User: Fold this.
Amino acid sequence: MTTMPVTASRRTRRRLPLLAVAIAPLLIMGCQKKPGGQVVAVVGSEEITQPELRAEADVAGVPAGTDIQTYAPAILDRVVQRNLLAQYARDQKLDRGPEYVARRRQLEQSLLANLALKRIASAQPAPTPGEVQAFIQQNPATFSGRARLTLDQVRFPAPTNVNRIKELAAMPSLDAIVARLQAEHVPAGRGRAVLDTGTVESMVARQIASLPNGQLFDLTVNGITFISAVVDRQPAATAPGTWNESATAMLQRERVQKALVAEMAKLRAATRITYDPAFQPAARPSGQATGRAR
Assistant:
């Protein structure tokens, strides 16, 4: 009566290794990732999904709503190459260096900032037909009086001191400004440029269009200051039938920009920010234009 359980136990122990060997390939096969559904490809152990592919398409400029199949081959190959290079970088332990840490923080903040901008933009209501018509009437320089202006201008890196820009813009001529900048070894360029008043912010277009030819005005954009004078004007008004669409888009952009400026003001007021004096930013908002009489 005592021998049968022992014999059964021994048989069980003898069969377990064989059973494990038989099951192991099935377990390995079950762990292997395969394309299908939302997964469009697998690179090693990394899945590439349809949302990732669409995000890549957005970066590449593919119009929203385009069928994924029309752009998948070329864009997917780019994602596959990036995954392979990323794995190579990990194998080389490049993801442990200070450059990777700094760039990862930069990319993460850029992504979050872009998502914040989209949230702020989507919260703004679309302009009504009445608002669009009022905008067109209030901004003739952008629509009925749109013009192509030839400018004589000097451009140089924006100084951190706003008063410095005012001092230069108050000089008697562009020649005098160039001479002063050269004497102070400030890199500057002099030349002609064309400004279409229908392509700039409506407030800036109104300001510049109201200045007589030859009157100096300054404009700082993206860290570059331009001191210019209008030397020629040519009408450039488009057909009235196109104004509504253009006005709607411009009014919406300016509405979003105004909301962004207001939100940034609140964020700055709520956050302590300190600067090294050598890197103190200029106080003037980017894109503001001022004119002076000669």
